[in-house]
Amino acid sequence: MRNFTKKISLVLLAIFLVFTFVNGVVFAEEKVIKIVVFGPLTGTMAIGGTHQKDGVQFVMDKINEAGGLLGSKLVPIYEDTEGNARNAVNIMNKFFYKDKVLATIGSNNSPRVLPVLDMITEAETSPYRTFRFC
To answer: Which CATH number fits the domain that encloses residue 37?
Structure first.
């Protein structure tokens, strides 16, 4: 299961990077690129969330070891939804409107992701990109 999660993380991060370059989202002058990773790190669905976290961390460590992305270090910010949809909404509000993160990698269970999909679609804070594991 762990290798599967790492492979999914690698594929999704590669897709993210392609979209980032195609859309001109990343600017070379940035030294740090913050990416929020949200999912259930505690509670009944924690096994999926911890695998997701491990996979993302593995990928970001490899990218950073190779010099980062355009010279910028990728910094994951992990947030625990506790398997609760309301927490996912609160997390997205915080990062969309307060912290202005570049991207999010979403939860691995649809009931926690569905409530934030409209927020992502309606956000006027483009160029956010969100990927989810499902």
So the answer is: 3.40.50.2300
